[in-house]
Write a structure and sequence with these properties.
With 381 residues, the chain is mainly β. The chain has a single domain, classed as TolB, C-terminal domain (Neuraminidase, 6 Propeller). The chain contains two helices and 28 strands. The strands form seven sheets. Strands 1, 2, 3, 4, 5 and 28 form a six-stranded mixed β-sheet that branches. Strands 6-7-8-9 form a four-stranded antiparallel β-sheet, with no helix packed on it. Strands 10-11-12-13 form a four-stranded antiparallel β-sheet, with no helix packed on it. A hairpin with a 5-residue loop joins strand 3 and strand 4.
Length: 381
């Protein structure tokens, strides 16, 4: 699960104790990736954008005959060293890069997903504290027009007790959103419970109230036809997680049993592939761990997420069965989406963006330098 406060603490420890750990993702670059704001709310105070025309990157992938646009999250440091994050758009035909939204210094974007009608951007976003200019917790859900014509609007009240709203996704018909509430509250009756606990919520869009549909669960994604909800179920006491599938309302859950010598015990970011019969998920190779055992003990870490560990893409039958390793890239923060023509997959990583076929072949780098933080990618026509 992506518990942001621990994420940053663990990143600091791993950076200074690199000799005791596996490779980590790079620090943000000194300046923002080149892009130009195209709408009134794309650029906020502290922006480093300012070109008079969209920036371009070389279209080195022309042989793949890709079309449409990728919308993704990047992070970097501004000229004063503050964290700045952007939602950028890459035109796959021309290589033009534009900025849809940019945070003020020290704002944070966990996820950014596009509505099925390509009109609305939904973000898990934490603006900086108005007084201190930092302290960008908690993450909550905001929406804004994809054309940037209006400022982001918060959908629900700020969660209590440090709770956060993360990992939003749309239903295929655009009538509902799903997200994860990271519940940090410890009720008096649950003093022996391990917290935080992740819970999957659903709400009708745009005006519905959130309803909890699954407990101890995160990473919700729906099949293309909306018939099934795939997610990761966690056991916060022993750090294990497992793949599950349920009805869109959270009912009828059942585990997807993964088999084979490389069947992982740490799973992230599952998604149904276009055939509906196969699932893709992120996981480290079985021998890896995020930190040395003594550091896990020191920090009281129970490792239940692959997201900040160098990982690979894997596939398995949607009904359960043997896993197959698709990539050999050792990349953290993997998150995938399917192209509009179902021919290719785009993947975000902490190091950049790449595309590949659903079987892992034709892996091609598109963008380098996304900033080292977690993020998302969307592919629209």
């Amino acid at each position: 699960m992506r518990k942001r406060i621990f994420h940053i603490l663990a990143f600091v420890f791993m950076f200074f104790l690199g000799s005791c750990t596996i490779a980590t993702t790079p620090q943000p670059s000194a300046t923002l990736p080149p892009a130009i704001s195209t709408a009134p709310y794309a650029t906020q105070p502290g922006s480093t954008s300012g070109s008079s025309a969209p920036a371009k990157i070389p279209v080195t992938w022309s042989a793949l005959q890709l079309s449409g646009k990728l919308i993704y999250v990047v992070s970097a440091s501004d000229s004063t060293g503050n964290l700045v994050m952007q939602v950028q758009q890459l035109d796959l035909g021309t290589g033009s890069v534009t900025t849809i939204f940019q945070t003020p210094p020290n704002g944070y974007i966990d996820s950014a997903v596009i509505s099925p009608d390509q009109k609305t951007l939904l973000m898990s976003y934490a603006p900086p504290d108005a007084q201190s200019g930092s302290n960008f917790y908690p993450l909550t859900l905001f929406s804004m027009p994809l054309d940037g014509s209006q400022a982001p609007q918060q959908l629900f009240p700020v969660p209590l007790s440090g709770d956060q709203d993360i990992q939003p996704v749309w239903s295929p018909d655009g009538k509902a959103i799903y997200f994860v509430l990271v519940n940090n509250a410890v009720p008096p009756a649950d003093q022996n419970q391990h917290y935080p606990i992740d819970q999957i919520y659903r709400a009708a869009y745009p005006s519905g109230q959130p309803e909890k549909i699954l407990d101890k669960a995160y990473w919700p994604r729906l099949a293309a036809d909306g018939s099934n909800l795939i997610y990761v179920s966690e056991n916060p006491e022993d750090g294990t997680n497992k793949l599950f599938v349920a009805s869109p309302d959270g009912s009828n859950p059942h585990q997807i049993i993964l088999t084979g010598a490389k069947a992982p015990s740490i799973i992230d970011a599952p998604i149904f592939l276009p055939d509906g019969k196969t699932i893709l998920f992120s996981a480290p190779t079985p021998a890896q761990s995020s930190t040395s055992p003594w550091l896990d003990w020191l920090l009281g870490v129970t490792q239940v997420s692959a997201h900040n560990i160098p990982s690979e893409w894997w596939s398995a039958p949607a009904g359960g069965g043997p896993v197959m390793q698709l990539t050999y890239i050792q990349a953290a923060s993997l998150y995938a989406c399917i192209s509009p023509d179902n021919r290719m997959l785009a993947s975000f990583s902490g190091d950049g963006l790449f595309v590949m076929k659903p079987d892992g072949s034709n892996l091609t780098i598109l963008v380098t330098g996304t900033g080292g933080n977690s993020g998302t990618v969307n592919w629209i026509p």
